[in-house]
Amino acid sequence: MNYFNIARPPNPCPKAENMESVIELRHLKTLLALEETGSVSLAAQRIFLTQSALSHQIRTLESYYDTPLFERKSVPLRFTHAGARLLKLAHELLPKIAAAERDMAQIIEGGAGELRLAVECHTCFDWLMPAMGEFRPLWPKVELDIVSGFQADPVGLLLNHRADLAIVSEAVPQAGIAYRPLFAYGMVGICAPDHPLAAKDIWQAEDFADETLITYPVPDDMIDLLRKVLLPKGISPARRHSELTIAIVQLVASRRGIAALPHWSVMPYLEKGYVVSRQITDAGLQSELYAAMRSEDEHNSYLADFCQIVRDQGFNTLGALSLPEEQAV
């Protein structure tokens, strides 16, 4: 038998001689999150890590290669040449892995099924419809539909097998129900530009006491402003209801009252000067969204994929999002 001596290329990391590569998929996901968010803190929220855990991942890579991966003081974050090369690998590899995992799930599970959505959120459609559009070609055999009408008890529809996934604002522990966090977002108070409250940068609970609060026609425990800020202080302002966000904005602009809405939903009207927005309380008012499903479906591949698509759509298009604090690990 003939043997050939083939010269080995020089090791780019001499101190790592005889060691296996340190790169893992979680590192590549971290690099993508850093690119998409432009900051360590936002990237950590994006991938369900604490900031210290994400920093530890980066330090591990930088120690292994003995070189920085991004410039620490740049805003937004700027990758070095070494970091850009690993980022290129992430862009090439992660989509292929996701596609292969999706193909495997469809081969093993048949790729067919039903995904009926129940929604309790009036402002969901800004990001829900694009997510549905992205999901359909990836899972063509899954029948995707929305349970018609606003749902005051979407979790009940899950338990009655009238829906397969519900978008809810609270992850209330309940037998037979599992939750996946989607994202958290900031709520802002809005008023007409010439309203007296426009002179205040931050609204406190007491500022709502003598105003007319315009809300969607839903129970009080589904309105975060009431549940988290006003009712704990015994404040129950006069109310007016409207089904549509644009109608609420029009009423606010004409000084028929004030409202609290997601920042992303009122941005077009802020830019046109129809209304102005203000922070609610010194700490700000955050709202959360979760995907609820039956516990027996918790590991269903297409449900998990849909949740990931929804989360990605939110972070990529709505801006200024985070993850519920209790979900960071």
TrEMBL record:
Residue span, HTH lysR-type domain: 23-80
Keywords: Activator, Amino-acid biosynthesis, Cytoplasm, DNA-binding, Methionine biosynthesis, Repressor, Transcription, Transcription regulation
Gene3D superfamilies: Periplasmic binding protein-like II, Winged helix-like DNA-binding domain superfamily/Winged helix DNA-binding domain
InterPro entries for this protein: LysR_HTH_N, LysR_subst-bd, MetR_PBP2, WH-like_DNA-bd_sf, WH_DNA-bd_sf
Keyword Hydrolase (UniProt): no
Localization, UniProt: Cytoplasm
Presence of keyword Repressor: yes
Gene Ontology molecular-function annotations: DNA-binding transcription factor activity; transcription cis-regulatory region binding
GO biological process: methionine biosynthetic process
Any one Pfam family match given in the protein's UniProt record, by short name: HTH_1
Main location: cytoplasm
PROSITE patterns linked: HTH_LYSR
GO CC terms, sorted: cytoplasm
Family statement: Belongs to the LysR transcriptional regulatory family.
PANTHER family: HTH-TYPE TRANSCRIPTIONAL REGULATOR (PTHR30126), HTH-TYPE TRANSCRIPTIONAL REGULATOR METR (PTHR30126:SF25)
Protein name according to UniProt: HTH-type transcriptional regulator MetR
Organism annotation: Neisseria bacilliformis ATCC BAA-1200
Gene that this polypeptide is encoded by: metR
